[in-house]
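>> received
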Amino acid sequence: MYTLPKLPYAFDALEPYLDAATMEIHHNKHHQTYCDNFNKVMVSYPELAKKSAEEILRELNTLSVSDEDRKKIRNLGGGFVNHNLFWKEMSPANKKNETLTAEIVQAFGSVEKFKELFTAIAVGHFGSGWAWLVRDENNMLKIYSLPNQDSPLTLNHTPLLTLDVWEHAYYLKYQNRRAEFVEAWWNVIKL
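>> returned
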């Protein structure tokens, strides 16, 4: 059903900011496990097989599934989809997203102010989860964090940029120094 996408770059391509060992474990173990376990839950719902994982998360609150499976879909499907975006937005190349950068400047005043606000959300998030830049239901840019593997899709928001602040995303290189990880991550995000 759903398959783990290949990374669009080598595991070591984001060095020295994100180390190859963490990238490989994060992608091949953590992300693969979310994908595999999401597929196990979805086997019980063949009528949903024609939908993308993103569509399933958007419709999560109205799907005809058990409460227990709804929680599993939120966590496992969220983990699968969140990581898909996380890998795509990072790049070893200096490719600036001019359109997004212009929107950020309009919404937050400057890229520097946006980075400051986003960094504060990411570093200040308690426990495991994700920091997000989203387009809300009113087409406005918003920054917030969500716990665990929750996805903005369940809030009818469109994710534009995300940062995984679970310790598995940075622990090998940065140990408990999340702020250093967040600062390093900006070097592989081109705004």
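>> The radius of gyration is 17 Å.
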